[in-house]
């Protein structure tokens, strides 16, 4: 089967106009890898479980399959996007952190054949807005934070990134910097969930 490129619009549920990405990925990508990409590009700490749902089928991490009896669940680390027979307009949902249930809505916007010799280009963030989300806040708490920034025009929310205390503002998104760090970041997240083995 010829490798294809899927362009997908990924938006944080409830704030689709403020926090979103358009990403391009290979059809050979696993569903779990799409999750790792989303966790990285939406600035999560990537230490909670996540789950995809597509056409009433849940796609979960191996650790969840081992621990929970979920009807019709499929291993997200083995299922590839090409296995879903996606079409333009198809939608799926990703839930991150079962306790807080942050939701991402994903829509396929285009499908094209991958040009020969361009495989290393992917994954790639085409465009986006909003830095991402904050771990360990409920969607309601995070919504309050966004509204506070929108009302005051500034953020006073402190987070630690790479051992440094910084002011975190959902509005700050650097597309060029995102793509420079993207592949290494996605691989770092993959190793956190799957271990050190290379495919």
Give the total of domains. Answer: 1
Distance between the termini: 19 Å
Which regions have little confidence, pLDDT < 50, spanning 5+ residues?
none
Average predicted confidence as pLDDT: 94
The global form is globular
SS strand fraction: 25-35%
Secondary-structure arrangement, i.e. CATH architecture: Roll
Helix content percent band:
25-40%
CATH class: Alpha Beta
CATH topological fold name? Structural Genomics Hypothetical 15.5 Kd Protein In mrcA-pckA Intergenic Region, Chain A
What this model shows, in words?
This protein has 199 residues and is α+β, with helices and mostly antiparallel strands. It has a single domain (4-132, 173-194), classed as Roll (Structural Genomics Hypothetical 15.5 Kd Protein In mrcA-pckA Intergenic Region, Chain A). Helix content is 26%, strand content 30%. It contains 4 helices and 10 strands. It has helices at residues 31-41, 62-67, 139-152, 175-194, and strands spanning 4-12, 20-26, 50-54, 57-60, 74-75, 91-96, 102-113, 124-129, 158-161, 164-167. The strands form 2 sheets. The chain has an 8-stranded mixed β-sheet with strand order 5-4-3-6-7-1-2-8. A two-stranded antiparallel ribbon has the order 9-10. Strand 3 (50-54) and strand 4 (57-60) form a beta hairpin. It is globular, with a radius of gyration of 17 Å. The relative contact order is 0.21. The mean pLDDT is 94.
């Amino acid at each position: 089967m010829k490798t294809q490129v899927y362009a997908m619009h990924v938006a944080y549920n409830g704030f689709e106009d403020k926090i979103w990405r358009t990403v391009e990925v290979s059809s050979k990508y696993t569903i779990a890898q799409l999750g790792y990409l989303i966790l990285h590009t939406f600035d999560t700490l990537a230490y909670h479980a996540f789950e995809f749902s597509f056409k009433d089928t849940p796609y979960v991490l191996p650790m969840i399959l081992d621990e929970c009896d979920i009807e019709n669940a499929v291993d997200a680390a083995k299922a590839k996007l090409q296995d879903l027979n996606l079409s333009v307009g198809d939608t799926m949902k990703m839930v991150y952190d079962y306790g807080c249930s942050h939701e991402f809505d994903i829509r396929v916007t285009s499908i094209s054949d991958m040009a020969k010799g361009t495989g290393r280009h992917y994954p790639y963030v085409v465009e986006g807005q909003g830095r991402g989300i904050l771990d360990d806040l409920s969607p309601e708490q995070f919504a309050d934070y966004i509204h506070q920034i929108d009302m005051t025009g500034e953020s006073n929310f402190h987070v630690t990134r790479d051992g440094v205390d910084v002011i975190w503002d959902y509005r700050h998104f650097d597309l060029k910097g995102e793509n420079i760090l993207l592949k290494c970041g996605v691989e770092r997240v993959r190793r956190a969930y799957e271990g050190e083995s290379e495919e």
